[in-house]
Amino acid sequence: MKIKPIIRSFLAAVSFILIIISCKKEEEKVLFTLPSNQINKIVIDKYNHLWIATDKGIVCFAGNKWNPCPDLPVPDKSAVSDALISSNESDTIWLGSMTGLNFFHFNSSEVLNFGQFSKDNSGILSDEVLCLSSDKYNTRYIGTSEGLSIFNNSEWTDWYGRVGEEILQEYRISSVACSADGYTYATTYGGGISRFKYTDAVSGATTYDTVWAGLRTNYINTVIISDDTCQWYGTTKGAAYHTSPFTRLNWTFYSMEDGLISDTVLSIAKDISGDIWFGTTNGVSKLHDSTFSSFTPADGLAGNRVNTIAAAKDGTIWFGTNAGLSKLKNGVWTSYKAR
Predict the structure, then answer these.
(1) pTM for the complete prediction?
(2) How far is CA 112 from CA 82, 103, 107, 120, in A?
(3) Are 68 and 60 in contact (CB under 8 A)?
(4) Residue 10: what are its φ and ψ, rounded to 5°?
C-alpha cells in the first residue's frame, strides 16, 4: 500500500524532468528565427535547405533548424533583394542587395568563403541589385537600377535592351529568367519584356509589350520558365503564359475573372505535380487542370502579399510574404515569424 505514493512521486519527478527537457528543446528551436517578416526571395539548395532573403539580411532554414551554417553573418545590415543558386549542382549562393552583388560558397554545414562585386571593384553597372538569374553555362544576369549586367568568364557586359528602345535602362528591371533554348527574358515595370540571347555578345533581341506581343500591360513583376522554354509572367493585370518562340503567337491570359484571387501577380512557381502557384497582393492562387483555388491568412498563410514562392522536391510549397514565412505540406499550413 505504501508503494503508490512512491510511484506517484517518481512519476511526478519524471514529468518535471520531461517538462524541463521539452522547454529546453523549445528554447533551442527559437534561439534563431527570421531576422525580418519581410521576405523578398526563397531559393532551395540541393541539401533541401531554404535560403531566405529578407530586408534585414539572409537566413538559412533546414527542417526545424535555423542557420545550420554557423559562419553565415546573419542578419546582415543591408536589405537582400534577391538570392540565386548558380546551378542545381553548385554550392554557391549569389545575393543581390542595395550594396552590390555578394556571393559565398558553402557545404551542408558551413560557409567556406565570401566575395563581393561592387561598382568600385568590378564592371557591374550599379550597387543597387534588383534581381538575378543564371543560365546553363553559369552566365549570370544581374538586373540593376542602371540596366542589366552580364557576368561570364570574369568578363562584364552591359545590356540595356533592343537598340532604340533601351527599356532595361529606362525602366526598373523586375526579374530575369533563362530558358533552355538560350533565350533570356528580362522584365520591367513599365517597359514590357526584353528577350535576347547571349554567347560572347548579345543577339536576337526583341521586345514584348502591349503593341508587339499583345500583353495586357507593360508592368511586369516576375517571370519564370516552365517546361524548358515556356514563360509565365506575373503582371499588374493578371498572369500571362507564352509558349511560342514567336512574339505574337500562343499567349494565354488569366485574371480575377478566371479565378485568380488578385490581378496583381508578384510571384509564380511550378510544383512537382505540375500545378502553377501565383503569389499576389491578396493571397495565393493555385492553377490545377484549368481550375483555380486560393488561400489567404484565413487559411493559414502568413500574410496577404506573397513576394516569393519556392516548390521543394518533397512536395512542400514555401511562401515568402510581407508578414513571415509559410509552408504548405500535405494540406497542412505552418508559419514562421520574426520574434
Answers:
(1) 0.88
(2) 21, 11, 7, 24
(3) yes
(4) -65, -45
Q: Environment class of residue 116 by beta-carbon count within 10 Å: exposed (0-12), middle (13-18) or buried (19+)?
A: middle
How many Å is the Cα radius of gyration of the chain?
Answer: 23
pLDDT at 84: 84
pLDDT digits (tens, 9 = 90+) for 280-319: 999 999 999 999 999 999 999 999 999 999 999 999 999 9
Look up residue 91 and give its three cell numbers.
Answer: 554550392
Count of alpha carbons within 13 angstroms of residue 151, beta-carbon side = 19
Nearest to 101 by CA among 50, 161, 141: 141
Per-residue confidence at 79, pLDDT binned at 50, 70, 90?
confident
> In the structure grid, which three cell numbers stand for residue 168, read together?
532595361
Q: How far apart are CA 311 and CA 277, in angstroms?
A: 9
Give me the sign of the Cα torsion angle 230, 40, 331, 313.
positive
Per-residue pLDDT band at 223 (split at 50, 70, 90): very high
